[in-house]
Amino acid sequence: FYKAYIRLSSDRNTSMGLEAIPWSSMYRYSKHYKLSKNTSEFLFEAISRMDRSYIEKKTEYDELKLKRKNK
Running DSSP on this structure, what letter comes out for residue 71? Predict the structure, then answer.
């Protein structure tokens, strides 16, 4: 599902900062690739977890970078 995550990352809204990948994008992806219901549910969970982790790490990195810049 890593390739799906990379592809879907471009669907996120960044106009108000870093936001999660929309559920609707994951849904369209699963329909496009004709994934079964179980596989689709697993995809949603896996992508959501990867995305939360990425957003947390990116936020930590940005905060650290800002602190270093302001020293």
Answer: -
Q: How many CB atoms lie within 10 A of CB 38?
A: 8
Output the pTM of the full model: 0.82
In a 3-state reduction of DSSP, which class is residue 15? strand
Nearest to 20 by CA among 62, 52, 46: 52
Gap between the Cα atoms of 64 and 41, Å rounded = 35
Contacts by 6-9, CB closer than 8 A, 24 or more apart: 8/47, 9/51
What are the pLDDT digits (tens) for 1-45?
Answer: 899 999 999 999 888 888 999 999 999 999 999 999 999 999 999
